[in-house]
Amino acid sequence: MKVLAEPRMLWLFGGVLVLLVLASGIGWALDRTARGEKARAVIENLNARIRAWWVMCAVFAVATATGGVGSILLFGLMSFVAFREFVTMTPTRRGDHRALFWAFFFFIPLQYWLVAVDWYGLFSILIPIYAFLFLPTRTAWSGETEKFLERTAKIQWGLMVSVYCVSHAPALLMLQIPGFEGQNALLLFYLVLVVQSSDVLQYVFGKIMGRRRIAPDVSPNKTWEGFLGGILSATLLGAALWWATPFSPLQAAGMSLVITLLGFSGGLVMSAIKRDRGIKDFGTLIEGHGGILDRIDSICFAAPVFFHLTRFFFT
Amino acid sequence: MSLADLAGGILIATTRLLCGPQARWVGCEPSTRQRIYFANHCSHLDAVVLWSCLPPPVRRRTRPVAALDYWGGGGLKGFLAREVFRSILVDRSGADPRAVVDHLAQAMGPADSIILFPEGTRGTGEVLAPFKSGLYYLSRKRPDVELVPVFMQNLNRILPKGEVLPVPLFSSVSFGSPLRAEESESKADFLGRAREALLGLVEP
Description:
- The complex is a heterodimer.
- Chain A is mostly helical.
- Chain A is built from eleven helices and no strands.
- Chain A is 74% helix and 0% strand.
- The radius of gyration of chain A is 20 Å and the shape is globular.
- The model of chain A has no long low-confidence stretch (mean pLDDT 92).
- Chain B has helices at 3-19, 46-52, 56-60, 68-71, 75-84, 97-107, 134-141, 155-158, 187-199, and strands at residues 21-25, 35-39, 62-67, 88-90, 113-116, 146-153, 171-175.
């Protein structure tokens, strides 16, 4: 698809640009009025986040505009970095070294190559079957048995969440949807836009009116008010953008509800892992947000289900 | 730009890409004043990662100490040691450790800093081996130079001893508060204190 010749894509780009300008304006105004140390810290973090959003949107726009290859490359790189972050904070041992090498330099590139060449059959089983069987074999071969099951499970889980799940986002490009041929880049944009808006809206509602915490032991920042406000408003946004998808408005609302709920689950689960490891963020790559994995935790959970629902009902 | 500068630039870029080292200046700020950086040693990457974390003006004046038997030959290794890192090569087989210290104290000259691994050899990264006494004698010999503890984390997982292929995790390099051997301090006390300073930089 000639992405920039597609008017609906331009509308989406334009909409995001307006939102960014609006957010920067609000951030600037808040910066001028905020008093007190605690408020200042919140506003400074907010503005760092907004600046990072500009960069992320620009990168995503360039990747989308270059067509399929750019998107696949971008998500492949994100998976690579996310898996780096995941393994860095997971205690592996010397005996895992070779297995990890295979994971980084064989399974990650291969998974995204399968997306690029449209090989759905192998794409859908490479990591759940072949990596799942090969990696523990390689680890056992090294002879180190201490905490073997735990180490194997951690590596496999990291690969599933940061590579297998994430790769379902660019895999949307390979779906054959009758009447929607050549327009799948819109679907990828839609997924990312709805899920990330839901994250932002949950944050905004939580900061403005958050009172009752959902899971104080897991994530002190998640509140019922933020959850309900964010999910509902992002679902409305997703329904309002139905024209960019093969869905009817009602179907778009249903899809959006599902992916925003899954996005929330992703954030919750990843928070539990971070809490267990005693860290606040997975990394420091994105100013104000943390690591890549902190930013895409919602996509990890939403992408595979969105992919399969679309594939099941619309192809 | 010389060939050595170019090779150094490529090496640093590759190291950054591969190890994503995050420099944490916890106990001091980067400075061109004369220093002895002493660090834990558990990977071939240690010296180059530490080196890559120093700002360029500091890096140009900082020379890693390396083993003569390993780095002293010709070829690529010799080129890297001599021209790129400007290593100070020491003979670790020598019977007299004092001779090594004299050589180092003299080779540093009036302005150069050095990178030293007081454990003497690479470990597995799980325990910090007891320090060799050279650090103590060097500090007594050059009381004008400050000793900066540097703890490097995760490099033993990126390229462990005995492996050739790296796994690209993220690493961190923490610079602690400078210390010196006191007049009245015994060798054992000082080496213990230096070791504690290094362990104090371990991140959870």
